[in-house]
Design brief:
The protein has about 140 residues and is of the alpha+beta class. It has one domain: Nucleoside diphosphate kinase-like domain (Alpha-Beta Plaits), CATH 3.30.70.141. It has seven helices and four strands; from the N terminus they run βααβααβααβα. The protein has a four-stranded antiparallel β-sheet. It is globular and about 35 Å long. The chain starts with a strand and ends in an 8-residue tail after the last helix. The structure holds 2'-deoxyadenosine-5'-diphosphate and magnesium ion. 2'-deoxyadenosine-5'-diphosphate binds near residues 59, 63, 117 and 120. 2'-deoxyadenosine-5'-diphosphate binds near residues 54, 63 and 93. Its cofactor is Mg(2+).
């Protein structure tokens, strides 16, 4: 499997509970490398643009309100099959369905406040990384 990069976001419910380090340890312990990282306050406009694919969903407005409710940590993770690997480490969207030992099973508060975002395909990863980072901010 090829070395890939994926976009990860530690969401406001997790930064609020001071879980950034514990979540980063999950990535590093699984062999993913954090090759870029910054703490941001998303604007409403950024949240709506980032989640535009969900614009017609009933939860879109609440999702954007939640994502702007506090700081997030955006990061680029790199490693073998990083996109799928990160989805495995995160667990299912709804923490009630997330496998034991995954970030969402261990830390998420609800389907909305589910602690982390991860890109779902290499194509989306490239677009989502470019949404937050310039090439010179990413250091393998
Ligand atoms: P994922 O974040 O696992 O890729 P997604 O892309 O389907 O999941 O949805 C993006 C986010 O939207 C998700 O992390 C939390 C929120 N969300 C999804 N389904 C929801 C629902 N049924 N009710 C409330 N929020 C939801
Ligand atoms: Mg998604």
């Amino acid at each position: 499997m090829a070395v890939e990069r994926t976009l990860s976001i530690i969401k406001p419910d997790a930064t609020r509970r001071n879980l950034t380090g514990k979540i980063n340890a999950r990535f590093e312990d699984a062999g993913l490398r954090i090759v870029a990282q910054k703490r941001l306050q998303l604007t409403r406009e950024q949240a709506e643009k980032f989640y535009a694919v969900h614009a017609e969903r009933s939860f879109f407005n609440d999702l954007c309100t939640f994502m702007t409710s506090g700081p997030v940590v955006v990061q680029v993770l790199e490693g073998e099959g990083a996109v799928l690997r990160n989805r495995e480490i995160m667990g299912a969207t709804n923490p009630a369905n997330a496998a034991p030992g995954t970030i969402r099973a261990d830390f998420a508060e609800s389907v909305e406040a589910n602690s982390v975002h991860g890109s779902d395909s290499p194509e989306n990863a490239a677009n989502e990384i470019a949404f937050f980072f310039s090439q010179i901010e990413i250091l393998s």
